[in-house]
Structure formats: C-alpha cells, structure tokens
Give the backbone structure.
Amino acid sequence: MTFASRRLRNISIVILVALGLLIGHQVYNVALYQEQFLSGWLLIGTVLFLTFYNARKKISMLPIGTAAKWLQLHIYLGFLSVLLFFLHVSWRIPNGWLEGLLAVFFIGVSLSGVTGLYLSRRLSKLLTQRGEEVIFERIPGFIAGLRSEAEELALQCASGTSSSTISDYYAADLASFFSGPKNLMRHFLGSRRALFEMIKQTTNMDRYLNDKEREFAEKLRQLIEKKDELDYHYALQAILKGWLFIHIPLTYGMIILAVIHLVLAYAFSGGL
C-alpha cells in the first residue's frame, strides 16, 4: 500500500468515526440522556490515550507497534478529540471559570499540537537540505571543536606570516561567532545573510593579504561555512524540541483541570 493510499484510508476512517460520534451524540441527546457525561468520558479517555504517546516514546523496546504508527494514531485521535470537545460543550463558550480555564488549556494543547505537526513536517525536510544529519546534543561539542580549529588557525597565521591581519579580524569579528550557536532566528526564517556577510568580509580582506595569508583565509572561510551549517541544524532542531515544552506542560495541566471538573460534575449531579 502506497503512502497516498494509506493516508486516504486513514482520513476516511477518521471521517467515518467523526460521523458516528455526531450521530451517536444526537441520538443520545434525543433519548434525553445526559450526553455531556458520555462525551466527557470519551473526551477524557481520548486525551489520556493521547498522553500515553509521550510514555510510548520512552518505552520503545516493548512490542506495541512502531513509533510511526503511534504518531499517526496520535495525530488522527487529536483531531477527533477536538470534535469531542465541541460536542461536550454543545458548540458554545463555557460559562464557568473552571470550564473556561479548561477550554483555554484544551485550545492551547490543540493549537500547539497542530503547530508541532506543521513544524515537524516542514523543518524535517529543511534539515536534509544542508549538510549531514547531526545529533542535536552533539552540536555544542562540534562547535567547540571548530572554535579551537579557528583559534589555532589564527595563531598559526600570525606566527607563520608575521602578520596579525587575520588574527585581529578573528578576535574582532569571528570570536563571538564561534563561541556558540548564532543567528538562530535567521536560520529559522531561511536567511543566509549572516553567512554571506562573513564570507564577503573575508573575501574583501584578500586584497590586503599575501599568498600565504590567503591560504589561511580560505581555511577560515571553510570553518565559517561548517559553523554556519551547525548553527542551521541547531536552530531548526531546537524549534522541533522546544515546542514540546509548551505542548506537554499544557497537556498535563489540562488533565489536572479535567479531573477536577469531572469530580465537581458528578458531585453536583448527585453521582458522588
């Protein structure tokens, strides 16, 4: 089965389930049952199952399906949970402070989830367009290695050519660049202006250098390009990891509020 046919099948299943929820909710309502309790339990059950996806990533050794299948299930159930939410609130704005706060958390979780889905699709493709794949946690170490190479290069040039032009340029303009990840927002926006400016500066400097210094300048340009690639990967991978620090805390906050809401709902209905 091709990717397109699998996606069509999955979307068709989601649409059928959504229609089933709409029809079932209406039938339950006509039968004069308290449909809020049914939709509420379905919603909280779905949310808890969605939350289990985070735990699934940490116990990948268990034979409970591939991570890719769990991700697809997480995405489609996430969209269905939005429908369940609107069914639960009867397509209106909640009027209580707890219900309103819970709705805000749910909307925050949903929006951050959709944003994360877009970012994961978009940025994952962009990461393959420049350089080799780099593990995020190892990037600072690679940057430190490039900094050591650049500093050593500047010192070798000064001692080998008796000229401080390149070492002075490094100290004034490049030391901060090699000190850590830089130009993160520019990389996220797809701009390479910072790299072009640095390359232009080193190229313009060639006219003041002798042949031996130009060799050092060319090596320095290569290090600048390598560092810029690492910055690019760091910026995009930081975004991919960073949005989870919004999505996951909102999710657990929402679950806590949902439990409080559940207890109060049964207490005031006489169920407790």
